[in-house]
Records
---
Amino acid sequence: MIGDWKPVIGLEIHAQLNTESKMFSNDSTAFGQGDNANISPVSLGLPGALPVVNKKAIENSIKTGLALNCKIRGTSVFARKNYFYPDLPKGYQISQFDKPLCEEGYVEFHINDQVKRVGITRAHMEEDAGKSTHHGDYSLINLNRAGVPLLEIVSEPEIETPAEAAEYARTVRQILRFLDVCDGNLEEGSLRCDCNVSVMKKDATEFGTKVEIKNINSFRFVEKAIDYEIKRQIEVIESGGEIMQETRLFDSTKNKTYSMRKKEQAHDYRYFPDPDLLPVQVSDEWVSEIKSTLPELPRDMAKRFQQDYGLPEYDASVLTQEKSLAQYFEQAAKESSNAKAASNWVMVELQRELNDKKIDIENSPISASRLAQLIQLIDKKVISGKIAKKVFAFMLEDDKNPEDIVKEKNLVQITDESALEKMVDEIIASNPGQVEQYKAGKTKLFGFFVGQAMKASKGQGNPEIINKLLKSKLG
Ligand code: ADP
Ligand code: MG
């Protein structure tokens, strides 16, 4: 709510399905091939070329529909969406219109400590268009992308803030990646997000006129673009103007949206069922079969991590952002028998390293087993937590197991009480001022003594023994 204004937001997410061949032909979908390398008469829209449906694309769409809690239609229909554009050689895009494959679902996610549910109106299949690039006085068209299968996931206008919109989009991406049906790569355009935004007075009964912001390529920009758009619309209306139904684009350097085309120029698509394609018949058996192969989904996995490993909700949600990260954590947790330690190491030390060096968890220089071994060395008190960080740093450099590193570098924890007592005595003797203050009641100084003792032991003193010795000696 901004003053007495309420934003209304709905998202249309286009997900490129990662099938090997295109939606209606056996052309490859491989990214980064030479210009117009992945084409055939079907992709080129040559007269007489006939489309044939890719079963895998339908299967992946059903999978996604089920994961988004949708109903799957027994009979869905491909329709022609007619418009002219140079990168659309047929003069129409094959899409679905009044009979989409998936409808009436929902997605849930956490935001501000609450569960937010956003309805999914529909998820329909369509083919992608090609790509034009403009070079001064001429343009080039690459049709490698023409005909690549897309699933368009349309939300209900139930999103209420820019942050919710971004979180909704992140959740959809996370589900697509868990299902392994779309790589979710926003930069390469495998996932594209159109944001519909309007504002209404909080007691109004009808929605305001919406504006569509197209092709935003990061979730941060989703948030920024919508935020800007809400403020712009309120300002226009409050200064006596009117919102025009239009398509806008987001300029991420200026943090502003600007008009691309107004409604007057909007298309009349003249949808009709594609006469070259039969309706898609999906049997209940097939749907049940696909349902039985669905992997564990992120929210279920996060709940299981909380229950089985006693993780806080925060840890569980961070660790289930990516399936590979969750699998890494789970292996480390099982093998170390210390889930919370595994969670901390993965979320803090490991993630920081991987982020810094831009390495995927799959290629982590430290395997989950070795991380588990490191945690066990701490739990068995062979090394302290502090030394473990040193060992961790060596493990990043060297493909060796932590036990060997501890031996080689002589990092075993000092648990010999008499050796530690000698150090503690020396520290007390050489800091008479602090001892006096401590005894006079400045108990905060205890940390200072612990620090000194750890330093004297080169970080290898057992902290519990040091604590115990200091307590008894300082009184
Ligand atoms: P269109 O026919 O213009 O494509 P749709 O009704 O299909 O519009 O809706 C497209 C998207 O816009 C959906 O995600 C929907 O939730 C959202 N939407 C619809 N009406 C509004 C509105 N008044 N304000 C914001 N979003 C809206
Ligand atoms: Mg639409």
---
Amino acid sequence: MNKGNKLYEGKAKIIYETKDKNLVIQHFKDDATAFNNLKKAKVEGKGVLNNRISEYILTNLAQCGIKNHLIKRLNMREQLIRKAEIFPIEFIVRNIATGSLTKRLGIPEGTVLDKPLLEYCYKKDELQDPIISKDHIYSFGWATNEEIREIDRITLRINDILSGMFRGIGIKLVDFKLEYGKAWDNETEKKEIILADEISPDTCRLWDVKTEKKLDKDRFRKDLGNIIQGYQEVARRLGIMPEETNISEVNFGKATSIKFKKK
Ligand code: TMP
């Protein structure tokens, strides 16, 4: 599938057109940002790892009946995906209190929540993605009541599936962010809601079960060092990267030679 014009460039990904109006290519960059762009860096290898990790997770979710945008991974940094009209909302799920929840409400760090907590943020960089209520969503027409009901249901199911998947490899799924969009369905000839964007250590908080070591973007946000090693550890435990590969030793200029396990 040939890459056409650039349609959109975000902080960590670029979207390109294809010849098919319903399909686009998602390219994973190495750029890392935090606190809405206040902090920026290139983390070599991050794009390659997120491409693989997100492919793995979205493929598994599809097998569990969760419709998502992934068609197939094309190469080290790119995926062919369904084009979707993205809801301007970040759907956050929290199982353990940390991050902005502890700052905003003073909930002690590490508090295990009785049930998953759903939060909504308005996707607007200039406003630092503010937290919003469902009524804001309905008032401003960002999604309908029915759409949010469906998305909440899918989101909680994804939380169940992913919490189990990560627990099985000794990782706690602390919290994460999802994005959804509406995409054309050729079969029903209607638009349908699908999971979009990515699920990776950029968009999840992942703690080692025993040591609570952070294996996600908090290593970057909090200057903990060894960012790529955290992401690599997640890939390794998911079984998509052979034990001996050390991504920090790979030359990404020539890139293509990191060996991943074949499925
Ligand atoms: P927060 O504690 O900073 O609100 O983040 C909650 C979760 O959402 C955490 O797993 C990181 C993820 N997240 C994103 O993926 N993108 C974002 O822009 C923000 C603010 C959070």
---
Amino acid sequence: MKILVVEDEHKTGDYLRQGLAESGFLTELASNGVDGLHQALTGDFDLLVLDVMLPGLNGWQVLERLRQGGKQMPVLFLTARDQIEDRVKGLELGADDYLVKPFAFSELLARVRTLLRRGKSSIEPTVLRAADLELDLLRRRVTRAGSRIDLTAKEFALLELLLRRQGEVLPRSMIASQVWDMNFDSDTNVIDVAIRRLRAKVDDAFTPRLIRTARGMGYVLEVPGA
Ligand code: CA
């Protein structure tokens, strides 16, 4: 699942981005309201973490325009302790939850998971499947043939991407930008190594094999014959 963090304090923004990425979410960061709104309108995000006091457009304005633009993804507001009225205003405008700074990361993560569960319940499946491989987006769990498989955060994000785009050949450059948040063509070895590790966990001991190399192009996850 993909989360956009809009936060102008670099320290907080980096901290949130890193923490969410380590928890297995694809995460992007915007450092002002204008960029944040643009990214939220054009990107495919499942949730926004939105600071209230932002340069450019403030958090309420971003939320208002987002809803006007037809985007209904859940929004978690971040407010300072002395902005109690902001919370009321944010909730009236359609924010889904708020968190008062400073907060513990575990608290933010719990809110994020609750909002994603609520936001997704009737719209999209929260379990991705291929043959007997299952990836549970909310519980962050992967099983194959019913056995639990432990993946790193990057492996989880990589498998999620492959499962979401099942049957499509994904170029290494695309995988690099989506999973590693990097635009590189030079060191695609990182991806090959990660795929090899992922295969060792989810494919090598099972039939059928699901992750296929499309020589010279990239990788594809598909159920043979499906
Ligand atoms: Ca701020």
